[in-house]
Amino acid sequence: MLLPACAASSAPLNNGIDCSVKMGAPVMLILMPAGFKWHASDEVNFLTFLQNQIAAASPNRFYPLFGNVANIRTIADAKESDVTVTYDDGSMGFIRNGMFSRTFTTNKGGLAYAKALMSINSFANWAFIEIDKNLNVLRKQNSDGSFSGVPLNVAYAATPELATLKTEFLIPFVMNFSPAEYISRSVISKSTEYLLDITGLTNCGIINAAAVYTNPTPGTGTITVTAVGTNADTINVEIAGTSISGGAVAKTASESTVTLLAAKIVAAINGATATNGGYSATNTAGVITLSINGDAGNGITPTLVLSAGATIAATATAISGGVTTTTALKFDVQTLGTMQSLLGNYASIAVASTFSVVDNLGNSVTPSNVAIAGGLVNFTGTFVSGRTYTISGAGAAALNTLGIVGYEITQSATVVVP
Fold first, then answer.
1. Distance CA 149, CA 130 (A)
2. Does residue 40 come out as left (phi exceeding 0), alpha (psi in the -120 to 50 range) or beta?
3. Is 193:48 a contact under the CB 8 Å cutoff?
4. For residue 2, what pLDDT is reported?
5. What pLDDT sits at residue 154?
6. Residues of the chain with pLDDT under 70
């Protein structure tokens, strides 16, 4: 309902005192978007509410400042004088209250904290919650019964004070706000939960990304020995001019059948597997099955080099059917700056919803499994040869869902699948 302007009451509030609570010196400030609102039901578990908002998507994120992780060392006030007017007859009129302006300084956090605070300077429309050492919490109460932060005219990290021979590096933060918002529209409540240990998100980076090949389909070809030859005859199995049998294999009296000669050739190939590019072989009645993992041998026909005058007879078929399948990507997640691995401390970070993997065509990879192996996250899915995959964090909300409040993946890594 709207009332005529002249009928609206402008009488002062009754000035009886029914509560003497007041804020002590601030110990923690929590910045938030000026338009963000919450309700009394959110304050039943206020600590959980704050932690969820600290890890929320950036448009609704809260940013705790100071507290126990970066103690406030000094508070300087530069309150503007109230604005009044003096008329020619000597009487005065009240125009408005002077604005509050406060500078908070800490000696904790170093250059990293100074950078984090200065990043706030690029944004506008901030509001704040104030918490003192007695866990009194001041915030604005709106006409609809909801709560929000006290609006700020400006909030910014001032230029740090550099160290001298007598002083240390100090980080200042300035807030300017209206007494009408802070005094007339704010309320104070006491928290039953300890709030001063909460802290902002720590940035993480993804490093050491690499493709992992698991269970590739081997390519196979055959070498069929049809005549055993005579003693001292030799046969050398080559691929692209390089022996995969470790050199020439000689027929002796012990190899009296094609099966026995094939077995000797197989033993020579398997004995050289570590140095012949990974080729191995088996023998069935003189038919050698030659194998190589993946598609490296596809289309290649082994060359059978016989010694001069040898009567050994054998034929070879081309290798085919090899498939190189990349079934996993591995990567590590570490905090930036300290480079302390998170994976050992927070095993539950390795879940699909925590990470996003997208190829260079914009296709997302849905993992079939995510697990920690060898200190790295093993992200298993279907990956295509020749594509580039970008791994990034799925956002703070995913980490918060896992109970890993305090970490957000802000970097990404790319892997090119051969």
1. 9
2. alpha
3. no
4. 60
5. 94
6. 1-10, 350, 374, 397, 400-401, 403-405
Helix locations, 69-164, DSSP H: 110-118
Cβ partners under 8 Å of residue 373, min gap 6: 330
338, HSE (Cβ side, Cα atoms, 13 Å): 10
Residue with tokens 């190899």: 255
Here the CATH number for the domain that contains residue 383 is 2.60.40
Closest CA to 216 of 327, 330, 324: 324
Residue 3 placed within a domain: no
Sign of CA dihedral 198, 201, 206, 207: negative
C-alpha to C-alpha distance for 57 and 391, rounded to whole angstroms: 19
244 lies in the same domain as 144 = no
Half-sphere exposure of 319 (CA within 13 A, CB side): 27
pTM of the complete model? 0.68
Predicted pLDDT of residue 208:
82
Closest CA to 219 of 293, 124, 126: 293
Neighbours of 35 (CB within 10 A): 12
CA distances from 400 to 21, 49, 367, 408 (A): 35, 12, 20, 9
Distance between CA atoms of 52 and 399, rounded to whole angstroms? 10
Q: What is the DSSP letter of 341?
A: B
pLDDT of residue 10: 65
Co-location of 104 and 177 in the same domain: yes
Q: How much is the pLDDT for 405? A: 66
Same domain, 25 and 134: yes
> Is residue 372 within 8 Å of residue 332, measured between CB atoms?
no
**233 part of a folded domain:** yes
Together in a domain, 182 and 262: no
| Neighbouring C-beta atoms of residue 256, cutoff 10 Å | 12
Please give the pLDDT value at position 7: 58
The domain in which residue 364 lies consists of 205-213+325-416
Tokens of 344: 């050992």
CA distance 24 to 370: 49
DSSP state of 41: G
Q: Report the distance separating Cα 183 and Cα 69, nearest Å.
A: 28
* Residue 173: inside a domain: yes
What is the residue type of 244? I
Closest CA to 301 of 274, 326, 319: 319
Please tell me what DSSP assigns to residue 254: T
- Tell which of 200, 235, 269 closes a domain: 200
Is the residue at 12 inside a domain?
no
Which tokens go with 366?
Answer: 């849905």
